[in-house]
């Protein structure tokens, strides 16, 4: 095996690990938001149908999205092969792009205002970077 082949193999493993890190972070965000939204809805709606989500529900879900994104960014940074902040920012870009998609193609049956999805996307992007920074700072404290 030549030295060039070894470098190509290393580069491919790095790309795969990058995609894996961002994917893991995204799954954490998704699962935490889905489970948290179910708990919040059960606590606030008590099984009653709603035409529009109440402000407390919107605020609770925005906080949930931010906290979930911090956890996802932290996991992404931990799994990343190098440069944890850049990988956490990659997760933030992915979350932001989903918000842009929701802004361009809003759901006609949504219970939340049109500004909610972009707000959650921005909070998600910020939260992912904060999570990456927390992991970076924790690594610096242990070395």
What does this entry look like structurally?
By secondary structure, the chain is an all-alpha fold. The protein is built from four helices and no strands. The two termini are 36 Å apart. The model has no long low-confidence stretch (mean pLDDT 85).
Give the secondary structure arrangement, pairings included.
Blueprint: H1 3-45, H2 55-79, H3 84-104, H4 116-142
Key phrases:
single chain; mainly alpha; 143 residues; elongated
Q: Outline, from the CA principal axes?
A: elongated
Using only C-alpha atoms, the radius of gyration works out to 18 Å
Order of helices and strands: HHHH
Strand content: under 5%
What percent of residues adopt helix (DSSP H or I)?
Answer: over 70%
Put simply, the count of helices is: 4
How far is the first residue's CA from the last residue's CA? 36 Å
Total strands: 0
- Assembly state (oligomeric): single chain
Q: What is the structural class? A: mainly alpha
The chain-level mean pLDDT equals 85
Report the uncertain regions. none
Largest sheet: none
In short:
The chain is mainly alpha-helical and 143 residues long. 81% of the residues lie in helices and 0% in strands. It contains four helices and no strands.
């Amino acid at each position: 095996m030549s030295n060039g082949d070894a470098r190509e193999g290393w580069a491919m493993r790095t790309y795969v690990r990058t995609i894996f890190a961002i994917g893991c972070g995204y799954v954490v965000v998704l699962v935490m938001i889905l489970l948290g939204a179910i708990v919040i809805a059960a606590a606030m709606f008590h099984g009653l149908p709603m035409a529009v989500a109440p402000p407390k529900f919107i605020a609770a879900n925005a906080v949930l999205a931010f906290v979930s994104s911090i956890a996802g960014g932290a996991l992404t940074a931990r799994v990343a092969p190098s440069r944890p902040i850049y990988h956490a920012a990659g997760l933030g870009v992915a979350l932001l792009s989903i918000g842009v998609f929701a802004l361009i193609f809003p759901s006609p049956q949504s219970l939340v205002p049109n500004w909610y999805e972009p707000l959650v996307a921005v909070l998600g992007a910020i939260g992912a970077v904060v999570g990456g920074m927390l992991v970076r700072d924790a690594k610096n404290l242990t070395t």
